[in-house]
Amino acid sequence: LFLVFSFTVTEVPASAATITWGVPSSVVINEIGCDAQAGEFVELANIDAIHPVSLAGWVISDKSLDNTEANHDYKFPAGSKLAAGGYVVLRSGIGGKLPFGIACADDSIRLAAVVNGKLGLHEEVAVPNLADGFTWSRFITSPKLWQASVPTSGSANVVAPAGSVVDRAAFLYDPELEHNINLTLTTAARIELARQTRDDHKTYVPAKFSITTSSGERFPATGTLDVGIRLKGSVGSFCPLVQTSELDCQKPAFKIKFDAFVPGQTFFGLKKMTLNNMVQDPSMTNQVLSYQLFRDYGIVASRTGFASVTLDNFEYGLYLNLEQYDDISLAWHYPVVTHLFEGQHGGAYPSTPDLLNPGYEAKFPVDEGDENDISDLEELIYELSNLRDETDQFSPSSGLNNYDLPSVDEKQIGIMMAIEKYISHWDGYSGTPWWTPNNHYLVNPNGSGFHILPGGADQTWTDWVEPLDSSGASLFKYCMIEIVCRAAFHSTLADLPSHVEDQDYVGKFNHIFDIHEDSRIADIYQGYTEGDRAYHINFKATYISSRVNVVKDYVQYKVSSAMYWTPKSLSLESGTPFTTAHLNAIAAAPGTITYSVNLGSRPAKGLITVVASFDPDDPSLEANEYEVVFKVADRQTLNIPALPTRTLSKKAASNKFTVKATSSSKLTVKATSLTTSVCTVSKLTIQVKKKGKCQIRFSQAGNANYLAAASVTKYFMVK
After folding, report:
1. Given a cut of 70, is residue 131 above it in pLDDT?
2. Is the peptide bond prior to 433 cis by the omega test (within 30 degrees of 0)?
3. pLDDT over 60 at 522, yes or no
4. Which of 32, 251, 424, 537 could form a disulfide with 525 if both were Cys (CB 3.0 to 4.6 A apart)?
5. What's the rounded Cα separation, in Å, for the pair 26 and 44?
6. Distance between CA 153 and CA 635 in Å, rounded?
7. Which of 218, 174, 209 is nearest to 306 (CA)?
8. Which position has the higher pLDDT, 556 or 200?
9. How confident is the model at residue 435, as a pLDDT?
10. What 3 state SS string does 661-686 have?
11. Which of 48-52, 211-215, 569-573 shows the highest mean pLDDT?
12. 103-117, 337-351, 367-381: the lowest-pLDDT one
């Protein structure tokens, strides 16, 4: 995907001619190797095919960039540059330049760039749980930006062949397989586990763990792993280790933590394992197919597998092994995660508070990220609170606006909630108004807008049929009055019946049900007879058939050929490509959107008109087109000197001074006072008026040949 002009960092000779430099944003982390077979390395690429970029002073590290672990930093020497369209590969180990090793599922690579003389975090990429021999690579012309690849350091990235097993833990999340997990406890640990209740079960106790796979292979090969185990569950799904009169439930669910008592210990790269008892799903299939459907539409959702569980030689039966949302699993989908919050029930009945309201922030458990700084969640709650009047008055006939909240990804949440409604996930985020929100996760991928991830999908595809247009959830109400979100919701909902039929979900349900028949029948502790199970699996066909007309009746007046296109940026630096941030149109009905330019293509300088064309699947809808004009020009940077402290003089002339502010474009820089009571500006001459803090913003608007420069704000004190 990149032309190879350079394989190594080069240094600029002292006598070199003047170079037109590219900007730091053109340099990206492009490929990462994290095992002995593929090699441990970091590859950088310059996606600007015209301009080289100076790397002098830049830093690569696998640790924080706060200098507390500077021995893990590699700093590029003076004169280092990355050629236009080129690569640089830095390796670990003997003869390599990186002072650290790279471990799959355990490291994040951080790249710090020098901008305006200051070093700051430029990019961060988490390394997922890659199988040996594969690398993690960027693909700018693919909707999925990061994918597993074959090692190609120093040349164009190549996606791993279709069908490759690229995840070390993949065998645990294959729903067609069934493994055997054996757990043992000491007497003291068993007593502690037996004391856990629905309201108090978060403490891990010591246990011994081993697993025998469906193919007969045992891990560990000899002995056991020392792990932590606790009970799990909530209303309806929690079962104590020992039956009580209050909870007549005989099949407890478990969480296993591999590093609870052995620091750093993982199991095939995993930190935790969740074993669901499926006591709320007679068919034992709902979660498998629900999460598969979410993944079909690009929504991050847990993978699933099956295991028979034995605890202290007691066979509890068949369990669902549900993939944990954590930094390990999310690395496959997001280069970096700022926060992962676990959404939960508000705790009241029948009127449940929506926790996305001021004052409830602390009720969201922080599963990943800084527990002491949840400003991103607070900002989302603040933005929603400003729209409370509009969302509280929501009705199915509400008007639409393009609010485009920066704290949320409207398209993602629209698709996610459409699937929840289709499968009647009454216990999910957007389900029954008097009960939800419940069972969901809020993930913030590096400040780019929260996504909602699904959870608790065991009571889906049942005869508890949910209305499609009602929910007590704040983001559902917001979605119904926001253009992009509602378009995503309606177009996904309209597409779901045909997708489920085309993918033969009825057959998938029956297949999963049948292949685990022996273990299902032997499971006498789930609480259902084979007659109960047969009824629920047979009902799937009835449910899927009935959903066709329900969805059709709902969307027939709501889908249209309308198209919405709000690019993240309307400008490109010359030499850089179109990405999904530019080509991101969405339609209000199922269909195909094509563009008059290709993803990854590099346009020539000038004003470029790009046409998005929508071809709806429904022949009764008309095709549609939408035009957006992009400006392609050279980027410019401002050079603003430091502004020293000034002493207020009694002589007016002494209170004036001129700043030598310049731009790389040679165009005139504009200065604006942000504190006119302290200082004013005329062109680049500053007039000090009184004591205080003077703030000046410098800018350059650009012209036909140059993009607008990033503004720079400087301040100085007047004494």
Report:
1. yes
2. no
3. yes
4. 251
5. 10
6. 29
7. 174
8. 200
9. 78
10. CEECCCCCCEEEECCCCCEEEECCEE
11. 211-215
12. 337-351
Within 8 A by CB and 6+ apart from 514, the residues are none
Mean local confidence (pLDDT), 396-401: 64
pLDDT tens track for 222-261: 999 999 999 998 888 899 998 765 667 899 999 999 999 9
**Of residues 171, 8, 37, 172, the one with CA closest to residue 102:** 37
d(CA 527, CA 279) in angstroms, rounded, equals: 7
Name which of 355, 380, 367, 359 is nearest 447 in CA terms. 380
End-to-end CA distance of the chain: 56
* Two tokens, residue 35: 């095992």
* 144: pLDDT strictly greater than 90: no
- Enter the pTM of the model: 0.88
Predicted pLDDT of residue 10: 40
Phi and psi torsions of 137, nearest 5°: -130, 155
| Range 446-461 average pLDDT | 92
Q: What letters, b where the CB count within 10 A reaches 16 and e where it falls short, cover 516-544?
A: beebbeebebbbbeeeebeebbebbeebb
Question: What is the C-alpha separation between 137 and 156, in angstroms, rounded?
Answer: 10
Which amino acid is located at 46 in the chain? Answer: N
Per-residue pLDDT reduced to its tens digit, 405-431: 889 999 999 999 999 999 999 999 998
Q: Which amino acid is at 330?
A: L
* Token pair belonging to 183: 């757990």
CA 85 – CA 605 distance, rounded (Å):
17
Report the C-alpha gap between 615 and 626 in whole angstroms: 12
Contact 148, 164 (CB under 8 A): yes
> Which residues touch 301 (CB under 8 Å, ≥6 apart)?
290, 291, 292, 294, 295, 453, 454
Residues in contact with 209: Cβ distance below 8 Å, sequence separation at least 6, in sequence order:
181, 182, 183, 224, 225, 226, 227, 229, 256, 258, 267
Closest CA to 500 of 203, 293, 230, 202: 293
690 in Cβ contact with 618 (< 8 Å): no
Could you tell me what percent of the chain has a pLDDT over 70?
94
Tokens of 528: 């259902």
Phi, psi dihedrals of residue 583, rounded to the nearest 5°: -100, 75
Alpha-carbon span 355 to 474, nearest angstrom? 9
Cβ–Cβ under 8 Å, residues 139 and 1: yes
Q: What's the mean pLDDT in 583-598? A: 93
Instruction: Find tokens 């035009």 and name the residue.
Output: 627
Location of structure tokens 């693909």 = 139
